[in-house]
Amino acid sequence: MSTRTTVITGIGSLVTNDPGHGTGPLGLLTDAAVVIDGDTVAWVGPAAQAPAADERFDAEGRALLPGFVDSHAHLVFAGDRTAEFNARMSGQAYSAGGIRTTVAATRAASDAELEANLAGFVREALRQGTTTIECKSGYGLTVEDEARALRIAAKHTPETTYLGAHIVAPEYAEDPAGYVDLVTGEMLDACAPHARWVDVFCEKGAFDGDQARAVLTAGIERGLTPRVHANQLTYGPGVQLAVELGAASADHCTHLTDEDVAALAGSATVATLLPGAEFSTRAEYPSGRRLLDAGAVVALSTDCNPGSSFTSSMAFCIAVAVREMGMTPDEAVWAATAGGAHALRRSDVGVITAGARADLLLLDAPSHVHLAYRPGVPLTAAVWREGVREV
Ligand code: NIG
Ligand code: FE
């Protein structure tokens, strides 16, 4: 049975992220066309050579790029933390403890409420060009609440992450070792069937290096692949642990020693930077430049959560990375697309090449550079996810 084909023609500037297709790491092509066959990209090349298709879409000279790959988000929660943000912007410091507020609200919410919230955020992200989104548990912190978070998340994305080790559950405040036993035992058993990844918040006030190692190792033994909240608020062992255990990514990477940077550069672990968190906690940004110059692979993600970074906008992250983190517009756009795909070990997204998933973002702009050049401006003209026009 043949599927319907669509040719998108008149693409003024096409980001393929395949250097074989065009110039630079973005594999840029001008005056290009893309053919979609069902849910897949079937052909990429100069508009003048485009094959015929069932349907034709004229991009009218605008820029087309792969849909954003947001490889770090916390979307299963209830309530918000407006008051905490407001206090912070009036001078209070951010600490890991604020997570408890969201844990209480999340536990009190029904499955339907949590799913409606999650679906709303996935849609909100999609409207802004995000076609792949990772989603963590971590606001339940009981066996049942963590398992239901992942069950709900798995209905909306295959990229689900078990983050039972977000903070020590309030019931275990006096017995953190007992909580680590729960996270590596009964809770892992309940969560592993619904998760692809295992994560831990390795930080002062959350889990130390030994506890983080125990959590990640237990997850690995259950077939999950590690990713780590590492070196966000302070220097610490998170990045080294991530590299040692072969984690797909070390996320945040805000406080890095030269040894941490070298470890990332010499490994397959992606450094995932989350500028929304520094923005919303009024903290120093990590240096994308330092990591890139050392040879590390860098991804950009939103960290969308109600506490430290309540944004679903990858365009915002790109703009901040360019303005504040020493990244060029090309590097930031790569990091938000192909970089996120690397962080999720996916080769079918984050690129526009024959055989890739037809996840495409058409901008209301002639160039991907406008994502940084026109900060805060809604530039989404159209979005295809798995070949379906969604926006
Ligand atoms: O990635 N760092 C740990 N977890 C989240 C914050 C969660 C919250 O404050 O609710 C983060 O920034
Ligand atoms: Fe996070």
UniProtKB/TrEMBL annotation:
The gene is hutI. Its main location: cytoplasm. Binds 1 zinc or iron ion per subunit. Residues 250-365 form the Amidohydrolase-related domain. SUPFAM superfamilies: Composite domain of metallo-dependent hydrolases, Metallo-dependent hydrolases. Fe(3+) binds at H72, H74, H229, D303. Its cofactor is Zn(2+); Fe(3+). GO terms for cellular component: cytoplasm. It catalyses: 4-imidazolone-5-propanoate + H2O = N-formimidoyl-L-glutamate. This is Imidazolonepropionase. GO terms for molecular function: imidazolonepropionase activity; iron ion binding; zinc ion binding. The keyword Iron-sulfur does not apply. Its EC number is 3.5.2.7. It is found in: Cytoplasm. Catalyzes the hydrolytic cleavage of the carbon-nitrogen bond in imidazolone-5-propanoate to yield N-formimidoyl-L-glutamate. It is the third step in the universal histidine degradation pathway. Belongs to the metallo-dependent hydrolases superfamily. HutI family.
